[in-house]
From TrEMBL:
It is found in: Cell membrane; Endomembrane system. Part of a membrane-bound complex that couples electron transfer with translocation of ions across the membrane. Pfam families: Rnf-Nqr. The complex is composed of six subunits: RnfA, RnfB, RnfC, RnfD, RnfE and RnfG. It comes from Herbinix hemicellulosilytica. This is Ion-translocating oxidoreductase complex subunit E. The lineage of its organism: Bacteria, Bacillati, Bacillota, Clostridia, Lachnospirales. Keywords: Cell membrane, Electron transport, Membrane, Translocase, Transmembrane, Transmembrane helix, Transport. One of its GO terms (biological process) is electron transport chain. InterPro entries: NqrDE/RnfAE, RnfE.
Amino acid sequence: MNKYLDRLVNGLFKENPIFVMMLGMCPTLAVTKSAMNGIGMGLSTTAVLIVSNVIIAALRKHIPEKVRMPYFIVIVASMVTVVELLIKAYLPDVNEALGIYIPLIVVNCIIFGRVEAYAAKNSVGLSLFDGIGMGLGFTVALVLIGAFRELLGAGTVFNIRLMPESYEPISIFVQAPGAFLVLAMLTALQNKFKLPSATNGTAKKSELACGGDCAHCSAERFASFHNSASDSSIKKESIRKED
């Protein structure tokens, strides 16, 4: 497969930031009351991700290693400010719907994850397509979650009624708890059908993901901590006996 096309497929399917990597959960849960909100947030993040990736890839050889994170923060924050001002000027309805979550794109772990793990190490062309792929993957995930919540919570998708007039909307799905319920259901389906996901240990291991299997990982960490604590206690006891 063409390496540029592979970056698009990677972001959409192989390492989808929401469904596979489980990154950027805050905006995912907060703004997906409707499919339209999902598009607004997804495309805003995509624009920031694409431009940030391109700029950082172009400057990667001139950015000192020790201060790379401040450089990344300044670049990403500048792009978020530009996007926010454009949305306020030309899309006031979107700005009102998304509110504080537009400026909060600057701390989205998807953005910093990609610029640190990919754009800072690869060419401008590959970084451009990586940003497009990851951004579109994020957007598609938000739209799917938003459409599902809107359909159950209001009987519409993109404000188009799909449910019969007799349908009684389940209002909890357009409230905060509904976001957790929908994400949990979609994750459960992924695990049921053994689809790649960071929650069932089948996500592709990378610099951004450990590959999942959180329960096993926690068990290993507990065992390691317990063994370390035991060794420490034995050493202390030995020192006391020697004294």
